[in-house]
Amino acid sequence: MTSVHEDLLTIGAFAARARLSAKALRLYDRLGLLAPAYVDASSGYRYYRADQVERARTVALLRQLDMPLTRIAEVVGTGGAEAAALLAAYWADVEARVAGQRTLAEYLRGRLSGRSDEMYGKFAVETVDVPAQVVISESRHTLADELPTWIGASLGRLEAAARECGGVAGAPFVVYHAEVSMESDGPAEACVPVADEAAARAWVERHGRTREIRVRVEPAARLAYTRITKAQVAHPQILAAFEAVEEWMAREGLEMAASCREVYFADWAAAGAGDPVCDVAFPVR
Known about the structure:
Low-confidence stretches: none
Order of helices and strands: EHHEEHHHHEEHEEHEEHEE
Helix content: 40-55%
CATH class of the largest domain: Alpha Beta
Largest sheet: 8 strands, antiparallel
Structural class: alpha+beta
Number of domains: 2
Mean pLDDT: 88
Oligomer: single chain
Shape: elongated
């Protein structure tokens, strides 16, 4: 190493100062998170500047938070308030995920401990006959974590289109043609009833093909349903509502005649957590 590099630290000295192992430093280099200041071409020895210690320690701490490598790179690639804001945003996501997992664990604990009757008893199930409806719809394969955002965006697009098709003629709903979970991606179909079928078909002919929007007739059906609040729409609370309706159907000797659905009859933005907003429903025969 020439004299111009005499102010650099060997990987051993730098590791001691950063309170990390040489193995960790080589990993950070390989991952693109902390490159040596100089690598000797003949020996391959790595050398670091003293002012890289803070970055090395920060990377190590962020990895203890299970932060993905791409997000670590973003944090250490900025500084000050911006880096702190990136960390805050990441941790808010973690806390939201853990809160959801905590709720799911409580739900599963109830199922595993045989408290199903207690869980399902709070859902009152009724039936209603609904007429055939012309709907404008949009389908998508989606996992559970993407579902709420897609539902809101899709129904918003469809309601805007419906205003050019004679207006919205009924409560919007989402049909699950197959299971939507973190392992299964449906598909789900967002539907908005419209008043004018001819106008809807003409609108789709002009605009809908590129958006995978179509017009179809939803057949008349008898629905077994339970009404839930905005708070209960969240996963996994909504699973208990679906299972409560299924259990009631089994007791009543009814069979599912078509795909299950969520019917959104209230103004979602204006509703409070305890306000009824949605019917979890199964077409039955």
